[in-house]
Design goal:
Blueprint: H1 22-32, E1 37-42, E2 45-53, E3 68-71, E4 74-80, H2 82-103, H3 109-122, E5 134-146, E6 169-178, E7 184-186, E8 189-192, H4 196-203, H5 218-232, E9 241-249, E10 260-261, H6 264-291
Antiparallel strand pairs: 1-2, 1-8, 2-9, 3-4, 4-5, 5-6, 6-7, 9-10
GO molecular function, one term: hydrolase activity
Biased composition (Basic and acidic residues): 257-279
Biased composition (Acidic residues): 280-292
Length: 292
């Protein structure tokens, strides 16, 4: 904290003279100290991954999961303070349940991101509360339904009033990341936590944007997610960790439209490939040093 911020970090509802909200910035610092969380939007689904740091050898293995199911077609992973994350997930489930009760359908991923972004942002406005110390990544698969009219919402029908193109559909895989300030964006690949920079660098190498050609498949996404988590763990290599992986596909895909844990066999295969890749990188580095 600089001298210009003296006194302005005591309240959540006050800006500093240079327009900063220090409490939100401190919340971001809390996120940066957490394990790495990533999300990958593939051509046929979404993969969520987490580097769950193990603080004690006495903890039961695979207990206290950090990736949660919000509705049957979507899940949430977060970096930062675990109690804040649990409250975030609980609220997200309430929003999903309320939407389903009102509209008799699952909440779209974008609508949940909008509602939760507004909820998180409300905690930056009042002196009686503090910002959420998490960055959450929401991934899900919206049901693919035929459009009632041609064109996306807001653009209007392209072939006249009430016209439509046969086979035009909406829905598909979606990925959003919500920051402590309440800001949220849609992503093809997202990362948060201590190893976010390394993870982002690896995500940028993947074919995730349909404009760049054929995107990676869901199974490829699982293997890449495991590899990226192992790469990001280099920033926390003095600590043990457990790898959590979940995925969600269309109704015709391997998860039948549900957000589920990646099957044990596939997860173990992905971890094996990730470790092999890391060993290969270390061998290459040793060869380069010998050549020098």
């Amino acid at each position: 904290m600089t001298s210009i911020g003296t006194g302005y970090d005591l309240s959540n509802s006050v800006f500093s003279p240079d327009g900063r909200n220090f409490q939100v910035e401190y919340a971001v610092k809390a996120v940066e100290n957490g394990g790495t969380a990533i999300g990958i939007r593939c051509k046929d689904g979404v993969v969520l991954g987490l580097e769950k740091l193990v603080s004690s050898k006495l903890l039961k293995k695979d207990a206290n999961k950090r990736i949660s199911t919000v509705d049957r077609n979507m899940g949430v992973v977060y970096s930062g303070l675990q109690p804040d994350g649990k409250h975030f997930v609980s609220r997200a489930r309430d929003e999903a349940s309320s939407w389903r009760s009102t509209y008799k359908a699952p909440i779209p991923v974008s609508s949940l991101a909008n509602r939760m972004g507004s909820y998180v942002q409300a905690y930056t406005l009042y002196n009686s509360v503090r910002p959420f110390g998490i960055t959450a990544i929401i991934g899900g698969y919206d049901a693919e339904t035929e459009l009632s009219v041609d064109g996306a919402v807001g653009s209007g029908p392209k072939s006249g009033s009430g016209g439509k193109t046969k086979g035009a559909k909406e829905g598909g895989p979606y990925l959003y990341m919500i920051e402590p300030s309440g800001t949220y964006w849609g992503y093809y690949g997202a990362a948060s936590g201590k190893g976010r920079q390394a993870a982002k660098s690896e995500l940028e190498k993947l074919k995730l944007d349909p404009k760049d050609g054929e995107c990676i498949s869901l199974e490829e996404g699982v293997k890449e997610a495991a590899r990226i988590i192992y790469v990001a763990h280099e920033d926390n290599k003095d600590k043990d960790f457990e790898l959590e992986l979940t995925w969600v596909s269309s109704v015709a895909g391997p998860t039948k439209g549900r957000h589920e844990e990646v099957p044990k066999a596939l997860r173990e295969e992905a971890e094996k490939l990730a470790k092999k890749s890391m060993e290969g990188d270390e061998d290459d580095e040793e060869e380069e040093k010998m050549e020098e």
